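Quick entry, no commentary yet.
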Amino acid sequence: MVRAFPTIRRRLVEIPAGLAEVPPLLARILAARGMSGAEELDLSLNRLPHPRQFGGLEQAVALLLQARREHWRVCVVGDYDADGATATAVMVKGLQQLGFVRPDYLVPDRFEYGYGLSPAIVDLARERYQPYLLITVDNGIASIDGVAAARAAGLRVLITDHHLPGDTLPDADAILNPRLCDEGFPAANLAGVGVAFYVLMALQSALELRGRVVDLLDLVALGTVADVVVLDGANRILVEQGLRRLRAGQGSPGVRALLRVAGRDPARVVAADLGFAAGPRLNAAGRLSDMSHGIECLLAESDAEAERHAQELDTINRERRGIEQGMREAAMAEVARLTGPTPPALCLHGDDWHEGVVGILASRVKEALNRPVIAFAPARQQGLLKGSGRSIPGLHLRDVLDAVATGHPGLLQKFGGHAMAAGLTLERRHLAEFTSAFQAAVAAQADEDVFLDVIDTDGELGELDITLANAELLSHRFPWGQGFPPPRFDGVFEVLNHRVVGERHLKLTLGLPAAGAAVDGIFFNAPVADLPTRIQRVEGVYRLEVNEFRGQRNPQLLFEYLQVV
């Protein structure tokens, strides 16, 4: 039942006149992603949608101006993922830069308190910090009871969030959420850290200060990429500006340290390094330990302090990988026992699985099967399960869970999330009932072709185009990510040499006869036991990337799918 080689669908469109000045290879790729004009190539900050277009921002700024003027004690309430951690660091640092006494911060322990501003978190904040103003980042839009508890205790509340609101909004002093804006606001896909940055930009403008919060853009870039939000025009600008600061030797010591412990050079950082190197190490703290470890890394003011925190996070991430490997083996063994056609969705459960790692597990199984997957682990509260799900393009996971909750009242204790990722809590005894309801809801909402194993590519890449210059161009000209996928190509190649490295990765030397050259290729996690002894030709889907080894930089084909032909 493991995913086979997919059907290839090429994104080939006519290049619009507005991209005529762009190198032809890049123009072809951008046109396939909907770009049509030269103005979209400009990723400067002055092209960000202006804060005045963000509904609710005036009330938020007025509240913060009063807090600054009257010296209110402030506590930032964050979330335990990378978006929440970066948003917390951005808000703490930004307010301090804009004249506030350094705010306190609090991130709920996911295992004890769960997600969001709950009455228990309000009590904890009051006990520890005695704040007068609570500012949520990356959470709060569904915290009806928590905001009510804060207001009853005489606290003021500012909510900054980007999650979908429910039918009822909390009774906060101000709420800032792009999902509440009119459709005309062109930055509807901001991550939580992006919303926090917009608050600070508007506050800086109101204070008639210049150029301070831009120092936080590397944190904004990290949180935006790690949260896998759609890289629309606004998010591409935020990410690109953060990357440029890092490449220029600027940015926070914490982000630079996270990149270095992952073996990435900040001077050559790309968006994928934030998503696959820095982000997982930051997330590991919230998955297995306490996200305050990650936030302290981001708040570090010296390289030495940041390095200590980053090394600690790297150690936690190694532990996370070991736990994940055992869970993945158990999950795939469970999948292998399934008979008949692949169901429209899967629910997997392990009595010894770790609650903080089930999201990664769901993602891995989803990638292997091209099906939405929810993985469950026992919660700390007896009799409950915590589930984390990942979806596939064309299927909105939170909407599916909403349909289940509507059709089966009382089945879910709570749920929330996005199109591609969501979480939920239910009673262990209801797992079978939920699995059936979830699969039925997926089948009802899925289009006929959503489960077809099709992968989009940018067509074949001519042998003369497989160069280091093009690999550099495609890596660094734009930040690629969710909704703006990195360039991938397909082709058939002659194999000059091949070997297995690291026990499960296939290293290839591929001939380019038209160019009179050869190029290296790598296919990670290859089914090495099923490979023939001699391989003469392969067909694959790949990305053209730069491989740096012992000071030498060369083009390399990084295969996402590969089969012997």
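second:
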Amino acid sequence: MNKTNRKQDALNYHSQGRPGKIQVVPTKPTNSQRDLTMAYSPGVAEPCLKIADNTEDVYKYTAKGNLVAVISNGTAVLGLGNIGPEASKPVMEGKGLLFKIYADIDVFDLELNAKSVDDFVNIVKALEPTFGGVNLEDISAPTCFEIERRLKAEMNIPVMHDDQHGTAIISGAALMNACEIQGKKLDKIKMVVNGAGAAAVSCSKMYLSLGVKKENLVMFDINGVLNQERTDLDEIRMEFATDRKDVKTLADAMKNADVFVGLSAGNVVTPDMLKTMAKKPIVFAMANPVPEIDYDLAAGTRDDIIMATGRSDFPNQVNNVLGFPYIFRGALDVRATAINEEMKIAATHAIAEMAKKPVPEAVNLAYNLTNLKFGKDYIIPKPMDQRLITEVSMAVAKAAIASGVARKVITDWDAYAEELRVRLGTNDKLLRNLTAKAKQNPKRVVFAEADNYKILRSAQIVKEEGIATPILLGNIDRIKKIIHDNDLDLGDVHIIDPREGCEHMDEYTEFLYNKRQRRGITLYEAKKQLVDRNYYGACMVQFGRADALISGLTKNYVTTVKPALQIIGTEEGVNRVAGMYMMITAKGPVFFGDTTVNVNPCVNDLVDITVLIERSVKQFNISPRIAVLSYSNFGSNEGEIPEKTRETVAILHEKYPDMVVDGDMQANFALNADLLDDNFPFSTLNGKPANTLIFPNLESGNIAYKLLQEIGGAEAVGPILVGLKKPVHVLQLGSSVREIVNMVTIAVVDAQAKAAANS
């Protein structure tokens, strides 16, 4: 794409449809006249009076506690310079958008026609009653230093100039990790900082706070090295003036330097300069869009280098979005009166530590990577990592409380973490609880399709997290090659190839032959079938050499289920197996059945399916409220489906009086308790929505879960196979790594439950 097209695309992005990037959206109902009288006159008088009596109630009755002002005068906009307040507005709107999508913080952007410190400070101070925090943006140095200093001193809400501190926090985390990887100590490194603007000064102060010695830091501005002989330096820059006489040029400073930090201009560092640096150098070339030295050129010059830039198309992007949304999130949530040094240091350490933890597969997928892990190409987290909101916000909140600037003290940190996840729509509490349960007693899980990257990546994750002990089936050389090529770490994992005459093959063959000899199978055919990994894996589970089997990623459902039915069979008293999906929705989990096995169940089949699924839902410590679905509501329509669902419910009410179940009913009535109570108050669902839906046939259940998964924003976990004597679980064709890990977790919990029932 040429530059002209890119420019026009950017203009179209901002202008087409509704101009700009943000809007104000009501958070309360506005559907009736009563709603409007509550929102405005006369109802609005009540919160006004409460706030008049107690100013702190403004946080209870208004949006102040989640509202940040992004404020600029347009004097130093990105790389565009002093372009004025109106021209800065697209940038401030963009900052507001990032606050919202990464931390669910609402923003009003304010572009001020105020260049003097006094004018700017007076305007912002007057806005304090409106906002919970102030993010200063794109204000030229040295004015920005004085503006921030005065506002922090004179206001009682968090104030931060992100251009200074955001870059300092993120690059500080990157520096800590880069030094650890390169085997360097912060108090020993020799550092060169090219640039002496707001960001460079703040970064340098952060590095000193982390342990860098001032005498080991040399700083440059456009006029050269900052030294004691300069007479043009203000008080702030004079703090970083060196007394070294041997440094006149950037090339002089780079000799034997351990770290270069660039916040200046593109292409000011040459390959020859890099060659003179110390062993295992660290280079943060953060000028944007053109770094101080090109990433590929630097990497080609020194193979022992760790390199970071401000660009997203290279590893180790120093991006402020890793910090500011979560710093303000933590500050707002404890109603901090300031963002102090302790909070910034806490954010730095939290970001650094997070990079050392296993990377969620969702992050790998977002960046089209396979196995991202801590190392020279991954020294700080990626912006799309949703763990940032919990890790950084919680660290900031704790530091605010510990340093005495918090007006609200959090005591239940688990509840706070859950609140943060809910803000981003990542409320997967049930899955986390299941994971914790699985870790208490991990089981041996055999993977029948181990010659597949996604299976092996999932096996690594469940092994690392202590969820399960993986056993891999497949071609041993092929599996080892995939592990090697993708730098996976599976240690001494057990790998079995059934084609190579395994230790227990004769035992399994005899068992299968005895079980199926009157179904037309010979001894030879039994041995031949066991070469199929689904048959072999099912035998491992049957004989107790594995606790659960996972398969189905690359094969159809029937091919996977058939061996389990033939070898393991159904539980005592169970006539059939059924398939269930757990749909993780914004309103909590909803269980769907049957979605995968029984094509057109009769009344007795539906009864069996409902009983199986009710029992399975209880395994998740959830009380099932079951709706048997139809296109009818309690006899409003006639036909085969309404009739069989009504008869099913009648039998269930008679045989299982403690079961909370009703039907026939339409799906919207099942899920909307108010709608159900208004129209059918006699329903036995007890005024609450159903959380378990039994579909009248496979086509309706299958269509429903796939639609909800694709356009309803729900995460589908399953299919969970219920009714087998021992745990065998079937993956969807093409499941993601996250979906595979979820299924393994459920398989482990299932194995735990079956073991407890048989003990």
